[in-house]
Amino acid sequence: MNNEINNRLKEYCDKIEARLAAFTADKDEFRGIVTEAMEYSLMAGGKRLRPVLMLEFCRMCGGDPDKFLDIACTIEMIHTCSLIHDDLPCMDNDDYRRGKPSCHKAFPENIALLAGDALEVLPFEVISDAALSGVIDAKTALMLISVLSKSIGVNGMIGGQVIDLQSEGKEISMDVLDTLQAYKTGALIEAACVMGVILSGRFDRIPEAAAYASALGRAFQIVDDILDVTSTFEELGKPIGSDTEQNKTTYVSVLGLDRSFTEAEALTAQALGILSGFEDNEFLSALTKQLLSRRS
Ligand code: GRG
Question: What residue ranges do the domains of the chain occupy?
């Protein structure tokens, strides 16, 4: 990525992180431990891909991203909730995330669970309050809540996680793997892009944003599977090889490394083709290409 694009990404991340920090600034004497756990996981780093996607789709469709930073944070809250819950002993039982001990390793397990729960409901408070204070209108709020809640539930990340848990140790077909991926990883990426379009008011562009997200989401998951084999703890911020250890079917276990990469390249090209229909797409096109060769 050239410097201009890099600077723009950093600018977005700085703004998002400043707003994220504000949501957990108050630490009450008795309940502060859960706020601390929320802050610990929210501020542990991460690429901030989903809020950036939301703000970019809003901007490319003629909206002002700076007006919607709090709403962009909502998608990062849900993402962080899913990471906290995914790492719990009853799920993937992972000790590290984003280069630090997982939330349940840094805090008692019950507090980590509740921190995830709190991050799951806070977005709905933030979106409702944005409507009540006039930042967005009521219809926009309802559309955002509809898209976001669907991406979390049985037809979204929770559904994907259930397929994942049910598939452990079993051979699953490519179709099931695609479905698992579309729910577990793709749904929130799609929600991010579609919510950005909704914020801009250009509802006619929702199908293209969803199509871009579908291609990007699958490419992203394939690269995630590749990195689980080829990356390092230092780069990834968590132990590599966890998919193999947990007997999971992944794109790499089915297609092998080379074919997985070729598939991710083709999906990235598809995503870029859809993006070319949007004005002012240079930044997001560069970011989309960069995600293919990411190391974390
Ligand atoms: C209640 C929201 C909720 C979820 C419960 C646990 C669960 C159901 C779902 C797990 C979803 C999950 C962890 C999907 C993995 C998606 C994925 C590829 C994560 C990595 O995303 P990156 O690379 O991470 O963007 P960073 O750390 O950069 O933000």
Answer: 3-292
